[in-house]
Amino acid sequence: MMKYSDEEEKSTPTTMGYLDEPSGEPGLTGGGGMKNKLEFDIYSSPFQIEVTVTNPIVNKSHHEYLVKGRDDEGEFEVYRRYKEFISLRNALGGRWPGIYIPPVPPKKVFGNKKEEFVQERMHYLHRYCKKLAHYPFIFFSEETKLFFRSTSDFRSAIKGLPKQVPEDILLKYGNQFKLDINSVDKNNMEDIGPLLDTVKNLPPVINLLKNMLTTSMNCKRIQLQGGTQYAQLTSQLSQYETLNVIEYAEHDESKLILAKPPNDSTVQNLSESTPDLIKPFEDVELWVKEELYEVKAIKEAVSSLQAFIKEKEKVVTKLHSAEATLSKLQQGKSTFKTMFSSKKKESEINNLVVSIPIMEKDIENMTAIANISTCYLRDFFLPEYNKEMLGVFYKLIKDFGRGQIEYSQRMVDGWTDILGDANLQATSLFRFQKSFH
Description:
Elements: E1 50-59, E2 62-71, E3 74-81, H1 82-95, H2 115-134, H3 136-139, H4 142-149, H5 154-157, H6 166-176, H7 186-189, H8 193-200, H9 202-248, H10 263-271, H11 274-330, H12 342-419, H13 422-426, H14 428-436
Antiparallel strand pairs: 1-2, 2-3
Helix pairs in contact: 6-12, 9-10, 9-11, 10-12, 11-12
C-alpha cells in the first residue's frame, strides 16, 4: 500500500484550538447519501481521550517530544522523536488502505534544530495526535497503541506486528466501522468519481494556499518591523522630551508629555504590544500550513485507495492466468513448466487447484475493502471533514478580526489617555485639531 514521508525532532503546545473547540457551524455538502446504508460510527468513544505533545528535549543529535495522555486503558507517557511520528503515519497508511490518516509536518533538512522551528513542529505534532484521538478507530488501533504505550523504539516495535492479508483487513474494517456489508447498495459502492473530482480540484487550492502562506509571512515580517520601528520612534520622542523639550519648558517636568508618569508607562505598554500585533498573522500562517498538509493527506488517502484497487486488479489478472493454465493442463496440454515431466504437470495442477480459490477469496475480500473505503471517504469522511474545515475557517476569521480590534482598541485607549494630558488640552493647536475632526 502507500508510503507517506520520512526524519526527526519546554513548553506547552501552541494550538489554535481547531479541534478542541467544535464550531457547530453548518457544513458543506458532499458525498452521495449512503449514510442510511452504512453506520460509520467512528467518532463515538465511551471514554474521553486526552493527548498532548509538549516539552521538546535534545537527545544526542535530535529532539524528542513528550507524548502523554489518558484513554480507556489509563494514562500513558512516552518520549518520541519526529521519525517515530512519521513511522506511525506510514504504518497506519499501509495497514488501513483507503482511509484518511491525519498529516504530520514535512521533513526539513536544514534549520530543524532552531528553537522557533522545534516549537512549530511540536504544534503540528500535537495537532496530529489530537486528530488521531478525533478518530477513535485509528486511536485504538494496534499501531497507535504501540506508539503511545511501548517504551521501545517505535520503528523497531512496529515491525513486529503480523503481516495482514485481505481477510484480516476486511474483518478489521467490518468491526471498526460497524458495517453490515450485505445491506450495502453494491451498484453505488464502487463509484469513486466524486473522490477523483475532489482530488482533481485540489491543485489550484494548493497553489492558492502557497501564495497565502507567502503573503501571511510577509505581513508578519512587515508588522514585526513596523512594531519595532514604532517602539523606537516612541522611545526617541520620549528621549527628545528629556533632552530638548525640557529646555522649552524651562525645566518644568510637569510640562512634559511622554516622559512623565503615568504617560511614560502608557507609551511603554504600547511599544511592547508588537506580539499582539503579529499574533493574528502568525495564526493565519499556522492555519495555511495545516490546510496544505490536510489537502495533501486527502490526496494520499484517495491515492492509497486507487493503489489498493490496482493491487486487486493484479490479483484478478493473475487469477485469469491461473485458470487458463489449469484448464489447459486438465485438457492434457502441457505448459513450458510441465513439458518434460508428468510429475511436474500433476504438481502444477495441484498447486493451481489450491491457489485459485485463495485468489478468488482474496479478490472478494479486496473488492469489499475497496468498497468500504470508497463509501467511507465519499459518504462519511468528506462531508464531516468539510463541516470541520468550515468551522476552522470561521474560527480563524473570528480570531483574526478580534485580534485586529483588540490591538486597535489598545492603541485608541492608550493614545486617548495621553491626549487627555492637561498640557495638550490647554493648547490652541489641540483645540483646533479637535474641532477640525
